[in-house]
Amino acid sequence: MCRLCCLCLILASGVVFAGMAQTAALEAKAEKARAALAEERFEEAARLYAELVKSSPNSPALRLALAVAEQGCGRYAKAVEQLRMVLHHDPKFRGAWKLLAENLERLGDMGKAVDAYEQALKLEPSRLDLQLALASAYRKAGRPEQAADLFLHAARVDPTEVRIWHGLGLAYIDLARTTRASLPPGPPWNQRFAQPPPEKPDCPGDSLECRFARGEHWQLLDASRNDRSSEALYWQVRAYLALARRAFEQLADLPASPDTRPLFREAEHLYSQNDLALLEKP
């Protein structure tokens, strides 16, 4: 939120009021609004920026600042309304798509939030924070395969980012649960998932079981991509969970900070669970 405030302050400070709008009173109000936003006095900032927007309705910078203030007040729908006006005026306005996505996400509209994050990433494809935000949004929208693909792409850019490996592990667990849902219900499968897979490091051949035993999880998934038999689905689930554990192992090798320690704790807890426990958690 603080970074968004700084962005809006920079943009809003450059607004030039034309004609009658360029008065000392309006400039004084703009300065008060910038100060309120900088100090996170969001109610005051929202009131002042709403007044400024009435004076300069075609200023996307003022509308963006108003959207940030409305978000700070928890009025996400009003923030979305302002941001849509900003983007109608300028579809490439800096920061607007990301802010729109965040507010849509807070409103629970993950489909539209994903669309907004995608637009933001198209404008700034090298931004790692946007890649992570979109990958997380894919997960929340029930699109774990796209989430995993984007987390993997981000890992190639910065393998030291804790959130990548945490998110990738969760995406693989989501894929395992989705695949498990295609298996027939009943005790036989639960019993198999409750037990560790048999260790056969010297397993010959290219059966799915042998691929799994050799740690060839990606090869297993590629080989069984079009196989919807119960046995193939079983090994796909096992492979996704093994990949999740690999991601958590990568995470465990990184240094923790106060901000990331909760991610480490969650990953450690999930890593310690057997496959059946992971599959049964919501």
Number of domains: 2
What is the helix fraction of residues, given as a range?
over 70%
Number of helices: 16
Q: List the uncertain runs.
A: 15-21
Indicate the proportion of strand residues.
under 5%
Can you identify the CATH class of the largest domain?
Answer: Mainly Alpha
- What is the CA–CA distance across the termini? 30 Å
CATH-defined superfamily of the largest domain: Tetratricopeptide repeat domain
Radius of gyration, in Å, reads 24 Å
Overall geometry comes to elongated
Order of helices and strands: HHHHHHHHHHHHHHHH
Write down the overall mean pLDDT. Answer: 91
Find the structural class using helix and strand composition.
mainly alpha
- The total count of strands amounts to 0
Here the CATH topology of the largest domain equals Serine Threonine Protein Phosphatase 5, Tetratricopeptide repeat
Biggest sheet character:
none
The CATH architecture of the largest domain can be given as Alpha Horseshoe
What does this 3D model show about the protein?
The chain is an all-alpha fold and 282 residues long. The chain has two domains: 2-14 and 21-157, Serine Threonine Protein Phosphatase 5, Tetratricopeptide repeat (Alpha Horseshoe), CATH 1.25.40; 162-280, no CATH class. The chain is 71% helix and 0% strand. It has helices spanning 2-13, 24-38, 42-55, 60-72, 76-89, 96-106, 110-123, 128-140, 144-157, 162-180, 187-194, 208-213, 217-223, 230-252, 261-272, 275-280.
